[in-house]
Amino acid sequence: MTGRTTTAATVSGAGLDFEIADIEVDEPRGTEVLVRIEAVSVCHTDISVQSGVFPYAMPAVLGHEGAGVVEQVGPEVTRLRPGQRVSISFDFCGHCDRCVAGLPGQCREYLARNFGPGKRPDGSANLWRDGQPLAGNFFGQSTFAGYALANERNAIPVNEDLDVSPELLAPLGCGVQTGSGAILNVLRPHPGSTVVVFGAGTVGMSALMAAALLPVRRLIAVDVNAQRLALARDLGATDVVDPTGIDVVAAIKDLTGGGADYALEASGVEGVALQAFSSLGTGGTLAVEGLASFTSTAEIPLADLVNFSKHVVGVVEGASNPPIYLPYLTSLVATGKVPLGRITRTGYKLSDINAAVADMHNGEVIKPVLTP
């Protein structure tokens, strides 16, 4: 095995803290690229895997919101070159019918490539610690490290004319595209419509910032955290609702005059999907992105679904096509139209990852960003 030694945050088993260790990263093969990581943000999906809520092979290197500079390319790479800045997103095969249709979030191999066995698609390991293989290739990247292997498909080049820091590029690869894409790619609210977002974390706040760009009549944020509701107002929400101790469905119907046209469930709290569905008016559409676990369920009253012509759609990664959507999203951040810095906190080193996770758990931070 030849490769590069780097520092990484590893997790040895479900429920255990991250540990900082030296690991070996393999040479890039085929269409792989080796990226020197300049920043990586923490997503709740990382925490769900670390805690064992979402299954993944262990021991592992997680991290799936990385940004950096291409250091080396595999022999079959044609789209990237060393020295290019990239944001790294989720992995997809690029050749199935869904990918060919421009819907890589619906890739037939999505789960295998992003939540798979922690190896390359051919079954080979790409990370080692003390000579033993680690589960890597998480979302096609495993970027809680100084260096990471990605693929020319999911390492998206950054427009060299845009002045965007690595700390702002990193969150685009998952959480920000997930929330903003649900609005811009899926729901697509019409002028004068009403939109309600359940959950004011990274996904929900990104959805709010995207919806604030559109001529909607009312934009409502629902969360139990008063500080986040205040921030939601600053980011464009016309109304905020704390559901604690109230009938949140009645409150939303009162604000919207009978029910929302569009709703996004971004909290991942079981039971909230039903509240979001019930808050819709006739012909309304609910997009569901929050997922507490792989066994989460929601009971939807079919009479309401049918009699009021409601729609429910599941959304992965904002239904985005990263090579197209991430450059657009980057331009929105660069021009200040999406003020992403309002929901991020920088200053964390990779070695501070456990503190960053704790800050997320207690609601102090929405999106912590780590640097090596």
What count of structural domains?
Answer: 2
Order of helices and strands: EEEHEEEHHEEEEHHEHEHEHEHEHEHEHE
Strand element count: 18
Report the sheet-strand fraction: 25-35%
Instruction: Provide mean pLDDT, rounded.
Output: 97
Termini gap: 24 Å
The CATH first-level class of the largest domain comes to Alpha Beta
CATH homologous superfamily assignment of the largest domain: Medium-chain alcohol dehydrogenases, catalytic domain
Q: Rg from C-alpha positions?
A: 20 Å
Contiguous runs where pLDDT drops below 50 for at least 5 residues:
none
Q: What is the count of DSSP helices, taking H or I runs of 4+ residues?
A: 12
The name of the CATH architecture of the largest domain is Alpha-Beta Complex
Shape: globular
